[in-house]
N-acetyltransferase domain-containing protein (Luteimonas terricola), 198 residues
Amino acid sequence: MSIVVRDVREHELDSVLALNNAAGPSILPLDSARLRQFFNSADYFRVAERDGTLAGFLVGFGSRRGHDSSNFGWFAERHPDFMYIDRVVVASRRRGGGVGRTIYADVQGYAELRYPVLACEVFVEHDSDTARIFHGSFGFREVGQHVMPGTGIRASMLTKGMCSYAWVRDTYGDALPDEPWLTQPRPADEARLATGTR
Protein backbone atom coordinates (compact mmCIF):
# COMPACT_ATOMS: atom_id res chain seq x y z
CA MET A 1 0.00 0.00 0.00
CA SER A 2 2.93 2.34 -0.62
CA ILE A 3 2.71 5.62 -2.50
CA VAL A 4 5.39 6.28 -5.11
CA VAL A 5 5.92 9.76 -6.62
CA ARG A 6 7.80 9.85 -9.93
CA ASP A 7 8.09 11.82 -13.15
CA VAL A 8 5.17 11.44 -15.53
CA ARG A 9 5.79 9.29 -18.61
CA GLU A 10 4.65 10.41 -22.02
CA HIS A 11 2.44 7.36 -22.60
CA GLU A 12 0.51 8.25 -19.40
CA LEU A 13 -0.75 11.62 -20.63
CA ASP A 14 -4.15 10.25 -21.72
CA SER A 15 -4.67 8.79 -18.23
CA VAL A 16 -3.57 12.06 -16.61
CA LEU A 17 -6.01 13.97 -18.86
CA ALA A 18 -8.89 11.68 -17.84
CA LEU A 19 -7.99 12.08 -14.17
CA ASN A 20 -7.89 15.87 -14.51
CA ASN A 21 -11.22 16.13 -16.31
CA ALA A 22 -12.97 13.85 -13.81
CA ALA A 23 -11.83 15.96 -10.84
CA GLY A 24 -14.89 18.20 -10.67
CA PRO A 25 -15.38 21.98 -10.55
CA SER A 26 -12.39 22.72 -8.33
CA ILE A 27 -10.02 21.90 -11.22
CA LEU A 28 -10.21 23.58 -14.64
CA PRO A 29 -10.63 21.09 -17.50
CA LEU A 30 -7.80 20.45 -19.96
CA ASP A 31 -7.54 19.28 -23.54
CA SER A 32 -4.75 17.08 -24.86
CA ALA A 33 -2.91 19.99 -26.54
CA ARG A 34 -2.74 21.96 -23.29
CA LEU A 35 -1.60 18.90 -21.36
CA ARG A 36 1.10 18.28 -23.98
CA GLN A 37 2.21 21.90 -23.51
CA PHE A 38 2.51 21.23 -19.76
CA PHE A 39 4.54 18.08 -20.45
CA ASN A 40 6.93 20.04 -22.66
CA SER A 41 7.36 23.10 -20.45
CA ALA A 42 6.60 22.41 -16.77
CA ASP A 43 9.46 22.40 -14.29
CA TYR A 44 7.67 19.77 -12.24
CA PHE A 45 5.21 17.22 -13.63
CA ARG A 46 5.00 14.16 -11.44
CA VAL A 47 2.46 11.45 -10.74
CA ALA A 48 1.66 9.51 -7.60
CA GLU A 49 1.10 5.76 -7.84
CA ARG A 50 -0.64 3.74 -5.17
CA ASP A 51 -0.55 -0.04 -5.47
CA GLY A 52 0.75 0.36 -9.04
CA THR A 53 -2.19 2.52 -10.15
CA LEU A 54 -2.15 6.22 -11.07
CA ALA A 55 -3.59 7.98 -8.03
CA GLY A 56 -2.80 11.65 -8.67
CA PHE A 57 -0.51 14.21 -10.26
CA LEU A 58 0.89 17.70 -9.78
CA VAL A 59 2.11 20.22 -12.36
CA GLY A 60 4.32 23.15 -11.35
CA PHE A 61 6.11 26.03 -13.08
CA GLY A 62 9.05 28.03 -11.80
CA SER A 63 9.05 31.80 -12.30
CA ARG A 64 12.30 31.61 -14.28
CA ARG A 65 10.68 29.50 -16.97
CA GLY A 66 7.35 31.33 -17.14
CA HIS A 67 3.77 30.21 -17.70
CA ASP A 68 0.74 31.75 -19.44
CA SER A 69 -1.78 31.28 -16.61
CA SER A 70 -3.40 34.45 -15.22
CA ASN A 71 -2.88 33.10 -11.71
CA PHE A 72 0.83 32.64 -12.43
CA GLY A 73 0.86 36.22 -13.73
CA TRP A 74 -0.77 37.46 -10.51
CA PHE A 75 2.03 35.92 -8.46
CA ALA A 76 4.69 37.17 -10.92
CA GLU A 77 3.54 40.76 -10.33
CA ARG A 78 4.17 40.33 -6.60
CA HIS A 79 7.11 37.90 -6.29
CA PRO A 80 10.35 38.03 -8.28
CA ASP A 81 11.15 34.35 -7.71
CA PHE A 82 8.66 31.55 -6.95
CA MET A 83 7.45 28.06 -7.80
CA TYR A 84 3.80 27.89 -8.85
CA ILE A 85 1.56 24.83 -8.47
CA ASP A 86 -0.73 25.03 -11.50
CA ARG A 87 -2.81 22.03 -10.53
CA VAL A 88 -2.89 19.02 -8.25
CA VAL A 89 -5.39 16.22 -8.74
CA VAL A 90 -6.02 13.14 -6.61
CA ALA A 91 -8.32 10.39 -7.90
CA SER A 92 -11.62 10.52 -6.01
CA ARG A 93 -11.24 6.97 -4.71
CA ARG A 94 -7.82 7.88 -3.26
CA ARG A 95 -8.75 11.13 -1.48
CA GLY A 96 -8.03 11.13 2.23
CA GLY A 97 -5.48 8.33 1.89
CA GLY A 98 -2.28 10.38 1.98
CA VAL A 99 -1.71 10.79 -1.78
CA GLY A 100 -2.13 14.58 -1.69
CA ARG A 101 0.16 14.95 1.33
CA THR A 102 2.81 12.75 -0.27
CA ILE A 103 2.87 14.65 -3.55
CA TYR A 104 2.88 18.02 -1.74
CA ALA A 105 5.86 16.90 0.35
CA ASP A 106 7.62 15.95 -2.89
CA VAL A 107 6.96 19.26 -4.67
CA GLN A 108 8.03 21.15 -1.56
CA GLY A 109 11.30 19.19 -1.54
CA TYR A 110 11.83 20.18 -5.17
CA ALA A 111 10.90 23.83 -4.64
CA GLU A 112 12.86 24.55 -1.47
CA LEU A 113 16.16 23.88 -3.25
CA ARG A 114 15.32 26.27 -6.08
CA TYR A 115 12.78 28.95 -5.07
CA PRO A 116 12.10 31.07 -1.97
CA VAL A 117 8.29 30.87 -2.29
CA LEU A 118 5.83 28.11 -3.19
CA ALA A 119 2.53 29.47 -4.58
CA CYS A 120 -0.87 28.05 -5.50
CA GLU A 121 -4.55 28.95 -5.44
CA VAL A 122 -7.83 27.49 -4.25
CA PHE A 123 -11.11 28.43 -5.94
CA VAL A 124 -13.38 30.34 -3.55
CA GLU A 125 -16.71 29.66 -5.29
CA HIS A 126 -16.62 25.92 -4.78
CA ASP A 127 -16.73 24.10 -1.45
CA SER A 128 -13.12 24.92 -0.63
CA ASP A 129 -12.98 24.42 3.15
CA THR A 130 -11.25 21.05 2.80
CA ALA A 131 -8.73 22.46 0.33
CA ARG A 132 -8.07 25.51 2.52
CA ILE A 133 -7.52 23.35 5.61
CA PHE A 134 -5.24 21.04 3.61
CA HIS A 135 -3.12 23.95 2.40
CA GLY A 136 -3.17 25.65 5.79
CA SER A 137 -1.85 22.48 7.40
CA PHE A 138 1.13 22.73 5.03
CA GLY A 139 1.79 26.34 6.06
CA PHE A 140 0.18 28.14 3.10
CA ARG A 141 -1.49 31.48 3.84
CA GLU A 142 -3.78 33.65 1.74
CA VAL A 143 -2.00 36.71 0.34
CA GLY A 144 -4.87 38.02 -1.80
CA GLN A 145 -7.67 37.04 -4.17
CA HIS A 146 -7.84 37.09 -7.94
CA VAL A 147 -10.75 36.80 -10.39
CA MET A 148 -9.63 34.75 -13.36
CA PRO A 149 -10.36 36.54 -16.69
CA GLY A 150 -12.87 34.84 -18.95
CA THR A 151 -14.13 32.54 -16.20
CA GLY A 152 -15.32 34.82 -13.41
CA ILE A 153 -13.82 32.31 -10.95
CA ARG A 154 -12.43 33.90 -7.79
CA ALA A 155 -9.28 32.28 -6.44
CA SER A 156 -7.74 32.53 -3.00
CA MET A 157 -4.03 33.11 -3.69
CA LEU A 158 -1.78 31.21 -1.30
CA THR A 159 1.97 31.26 -0.62
CA LYS A 160 4.41 29.49 1.63
CA GLY A 161 8.00 30.56 2.30
CA MET A 162 10.63 27.89 1.67
CA CYS A 163 12.70 28.00 4.86
CA SER A 164 15.62 25.97 3.42
CA TYR A 165 16.01 28.05 0.26
CA ALA A 166 18.26 30.76 1.72
CA TRP A 167 20.68 28.23 3.21
CA VAL A 168 20.84 26.19 0.00
CA ARG A 169 21.33 29.34 -2.09
CA ASP A 170 24.01 30.76 0.23
CA THR A 171 25.83 27.42 0.39
CA TYR A 172 25.59 26.17 -3.20
CA GLY A 173 24.41 29.06 -5.39
CA ASP A 174 23.37 27.64 -8.77
CA ALA A 175 25.63 24.58 -8.40
CA LEU A 176 23.71 21.90 -6.53
CA PRO A 177 25.73 18.74 -5.81
CA ASP A 178 25.87 16.24 -8.66
CA GLU A 179 23.35 13.82 -7.18
CA PRO A 180 20.68 12.23 -9.39
CA TRP A 181 17.82 13.16 -7.03
CA LEU A 182 18.90 16.81 -7.24
CA THR A 183 19.94 17.25 -10.85
CA GLN A 184 18.38 14.54 -13.00
CA PRO A 185 16.22 16.19 -15.72
CA ARG A 186 12.69 15.07 -16.41
CA PRO A 187 12.12 13.09 -19.64
CA ALA A 188 10.65 16.22 -21.29
CA ASP A 189 13.80 18.15 -20.37
CA GLU A 190 15.93 15.43 -21.94
CA ALA A 191 13.85 15.62 -25.13
CA ARG A 192 14.26 19.41 -25.28
CA LEU A 193 18.00 19.10 -24.77
CA ALA A 194 18.28 16.49 -27.51
CA THR A 195 16.34 18.59 -30.03
CA GLY A 196 17.74 21.96 -28.98
CA THR A 197 14.26 23.34 -28.21
CA ARG A 198 13.34 25.29 -25.09
User: Anything to note?
Assistant: Confidence is low (pLDDT under 50) at residues 191-198. Helices lie at 13-21, 32-41, 70-76, 99-112, 129-137, 165-172, 180-183, 187-195.
